[in-house]
UniProtKB/TrEMBL annotation:
CDD domains: CobQ_N, GATase1_CobQ. Pathway: Cofactor biosynthesis; adenosylcobalamin biosynthesis. NCBIfam families: cobQ (TIGR00313), PRK00784.1 (NF001989). It comes from the Bacteria. Catalyzes amidations at positions B, D, E, and G on adenosylcobyrinic A,C-diamide. NH(2) groups are provided by glutamine, and one molecule of ATP is hydrogenolyzed for each amidation. Residues 254-423 form the CobB/CobQ-like glutamine amidotransferase domain. The active site is at residues 332, 419. The keyword Ion transport does not apply. Keywords: Cobalamin biosynthesis, Glutamine amidotransferase. This is Cobyric acid synthase. The gene is cobQ. InterPro entries: Class_I_gatase-like, CobQ/CobB/MinD/ParA_Nub-bd_dom, CobQ_GATase1, CobQ_N, CobQ_synth, GATase_3, P-loop_NTPase. HAMAP family: CobQ. Residues 6-230 form the CobQ/CobB/MinD/ParA nucleotide binding domain.
């Protein structure tokens, strides 16, 4: 039976995903067989595994960091928000209905059972399971039914470290308060703290670190410095505004429409690394002015986001851009919006019988069905090898145009059902050369390999973890977890 470690947080976006990724690679470099785990992920940013299962993108990249094959057990419950009160549920990689907001507290026992079963299975097969919590470790309103944070820690009798983002301010209060809000049994599992995203001289923190350790009886296991260039495949859209982007008069300007329910926005990550490409996220038609290329990304609610597009006047701006000869790329839901019509007879997205006309830029019609496509397609386009992944309920019928990656092309308007296609270097370079020629620009290609860049970032993150975290203390926790010493006292 392997060991387990829970990396919890004081808040959402405290850096849990990044810390888990770094720890996974650090342990893997030590020769351990490591698996990442997140009992429940709420995200529209997902990935298809080789077994044809859907998991959160963050757990997929953590598996890559762990040098493990991504699998459904690593993210047994995935909630994909359709609106503010309803989420589509994926259990062990397969669609499993929907949850309304009122069900979140007491109607999830079957989800907890699936999560605990998946965790136990991984623990039997791996030396270490590095678990990522969700939101705050002190979600006390949800504690009775929790299976993601301290409920999971209690199930696995796991040592837990709490990560706090110092860039938000108030990190010492949030760490002390997180511990203080927990009951005595949960407090016993909190073994230390990690401060994330620190800028400056770490010696300035020493009085605060000493006080926190004295007040809580727990060590600060490390202070991770803020690093701009270590962004990874993100789990939610909080990271969109921090994407790196190149600038310059000669850059190819790409405007990505930031849909309210955007999904799989990592489709454009590779473009952000290209030296002659400038990527901007826009939600206003005026922001499209001056863009060479427009990308309409995927969405978890195609009809609702199409209505939003029209309410903002972005539909007219995109159509005008295309009619002037400007390149447009629609990916999955974005491709469906570029077609002629979208129908949802069964209410897959919420309202049975809902339908709407598309933007009419491509000869494609979409009908949503209950069956979900989860595939890892391969092929070619623009004389380049291509691969990607499909995650969708919509069945698209194409009448005319030129076949393009599970979609179609009309002139400089492209539509594809394949997520992740631009991560392939050959296809991305070919597409960039194509659209650059359309707008009369010359750009460099062939200088950036996205898979290689991802590996460099993972290795650099593991280097930071090894340098700035007390990995010996973490390893000692893992070896002693079955006989964790009882800490003296509890906070009141």
């Amino acid at each position: 039976m392997g060991s387990g470690l829970l990396v919890a947080g004081t808040t959402s976006d405290a850096g849990k995903s990044v810390v888990v990724t770094g720890i996974c690679r650090s342990l893997a470099r030590r020769g351990l067989k490591v698996a990442p785990f997140k009992a429940q992920n709420m995200s529209n940013n997902s990935m298809v595994t080789s077994e044809g299962a859907e998991i959160g993108r963050a757990q997929w990249i953590q598996a890559v960091a762990a040098r493990a094959i991504p699998e459904a057990a690593m993210n047994p419950v995935l909630l994909k928000p359709g609106n503010d009160r309803r989420s589509h549920v994926v259990v062990l990689g397969r669609p499993a209905g929907a949850l309304e907001a009122g069900e979140f507290a007491g109607g999830r026992k079957h989800l907890a059972d699936a999560a605990f079963g998946a965790f136990d299975d991984l623990r039997r097969r791996f030396d270490v399971v590095v678990c990522e919590g969700a939101g705050s470790a002190a979600e006390i309103n949800l504690r009775d039914h929790d299976y993601v944070n301290m409920g999971l820690a209690q199930h696995g009798s796991m040592p837990t470290v709490v990560v706090g983002d110092i860039d938000r301010g108030g990190v010492f209060a949030s760490m002390y308060g997180t511990l203080a809000l927990l009951d005595a049994a949960d407090q016993q599992l909190i073994r230390g703290f990690v401060i994330n995203k620190f800028r400056g001289d770490v010696s300035l923190l020493k009085p605060g670190l000493d006080s926190l350790e004295r007040l809580t009886g727990r060590p600060v296991l490390g202070v991770l410095p803020w690093q701009r260039d270590l962004w990874l495949d993100s789990e939610d859209s909080l990271a969109l505004t921090s994407r790196p982007a190149h600038d310059g008069d000669g850059a190819l300007s790409i405007a990505v429409v930031m849909l309210p329910r955007v999904s799989n926005f990592t489709d454009v990550d590779a473009l952000c690394l290209e030296p002659d490409v400038r990527v901007r996220f826009v939600d206003d038609p005026r922001a499209l002015a001056g863009a060479d290329v427009v990308i309409v990304p995927g969405t978890r609610a195609t009809l609702a986001d199409l209505a939003w597009l029209r309410s903002r006047g972005l539909d007219t701006a995109i159509v005008d851009h295309a009619r002037r000869g400007g390149p447009v790329l629609g990916i999955c839901g974005g491709f469906q919006m570029l077609g002629t019509r979208i129908d949802d007879p069964h209410g897959v997205e919420g309202v049975p019988g809902a339908s709407a006309a598309g933007l009419g830029l491509l000869p494609a019609r979409t009908e949503f069905g209950h069956e979900k496509a989860l595939r890892l397609p391969r092929g070619s386009a623009l004389d380049a090898a291509a691969s990607g992944y499909e995650i969708h309920h919509g069945r698209v019928t194409v009448d005319g145009g030129t076949e393009f990656l599970g979609g179609t092309r009309e002139g400089s308007v492209f539509g594809t059902m394949w997520h992740g296609a631009l991560e392939g270097d050959a296809l991305r370079w070919a597409w960039l050369r194509e659209v650059a020629a359309v707008v009369g620009r010359e750009i460099r290609t062939g200088e950036v390999s996205f898979p290689a860049a991802r590996e460099v970032r993972i290795e650099a993150l593991a280097d930071l973890v090894d340098e700035h975290l007390d990995m010996d203390a973490l390893l000692a926790m893992l070896s002693d977890e079955r006989t964790l010493p009882v800490l003296r006292g509890t906070l009141r």
